[in-house]
Fold this sequence. Notes:
Organism (chain A): Muricoccus roseus
Shape of chain B: globular
Oligomer: heterodimer
Number of domains of chain A: 1
Transmembrane segments (chain A): 36-56, 63-79
Keywords (chain B): Membrane, Transmembrane, Transmembrane helix
Transmembrane segments (chain B): 20-43, 55-77, 97-114, 126-151, 157-176, 206-224
Strand content of chain B: under 5%
Number of helices of chain B: 12
Order of helices and strands of chain A: HHHH
Helix content of chain A: over 70%
Number of domains of chain B: 2
Largest interface: A-B, 69 and 98 residues
Largest sheet of chain A: none
Strand content of chain A: under 5%
Distance between the termini of chain A: 37 Å
Radius of gyration of chain B: 18 Å
Radius of gyration of chain A: 20 Å
Helix content of chain B: over 70%
Order of helices and strands of chain B: HHHHHHHHHHHH
Keywords (chain A): Membrane, Transmembrane, Transmembrane helix
Number of helices of chain A: 4
Structural class of chain B: mainly alpha
Number of strands of chain A: 0
Amino acid sequence: MSEGWFPLLAAIAAMTLLRGLGMALAWRLPPGHPAIAWAAAVSEAALSAWVVLALLSPGPWPLAARLAGAAIALATFMATGRRLLPGLATGLLAIWVVDALLR
Amino acid sequence: MHPAFRQGARESLGAHTLAMAATFIAFGAAVHAAGFGLGWGLASSAGVYGMAGQMVLLGTSGAQPGAATAAVAGAVMANARFLPMAAALAPLVRGPLAPLCVPFVAITPWAAAMRRLPATPAPDRAPWFLGFALSAWTTGLLTTALGYALAGHLSPAVLRLLLMVNVLYFGLMIAAGMSRGGPWRASLGGALAAPLAFLLPAGVPPAWGILGAALIGGTAAFLLRHR
């Protein structure tokens, strides 16, 4: 699998460029600059879009299991005073259980 | 050692690490299953350090003609969000340590930094970020190796479940931010624009959908921010 090294090294260089370019472009701008506010909004939107697409796109678990897992995780998270670990644990359990029930 | 560095490293241990570790274990196991070596997996986790791009590379870095170009282009698209993320982080870590922060701009440290750093004294911000990020990055490398070693011992169902940990984790992080009055417009904008990705023609990499949704939802949130 030596073929895999060239794309990997090229991708590492590209990632470094993306990160460095973002940092350099914003280097002299004050925190409240509109360009910074826009970049932050786009980044936050990218994160939530990624989560929504991971939940809705065809994937390794049935859609119903993924949605049930997300709902249970959120409900537990809110019910336990916004504690992440109980939310995560019950969400994963719900995915597993709903998947088993659907089989 | 700077106290803020220690504090950042301490804060990275917890749900952040658990969620990230689960994903990297699954990645390590997938690297083994794809026939790549441990060195390749570790280099990917260390240098690409963005799971979406890592998975694209893993899935496309084959021996077929033209695979290398497609793999690199796909990974860049999948992780293109690093550019605006680094731009948003730059004012918070500005100073002599900022260049050291560059390789660690990735979802986990970035999301934690954007929530934590605005309330942190300016001189402590870069050391805190470096402490958090270096700890998270090291965890990523260790768990990649662990996943590689465990490959074959984990059931496919467990591996599939590990891939869901990060999705739920970031979903909860966003919910927490929104309930505290954080950047809810941008989070909501991205979530509402995300289904537009399903309108993309067949064959277009899903990463373009994320980027498009982020640009549309994020820009709308930015334009509506003072209303």
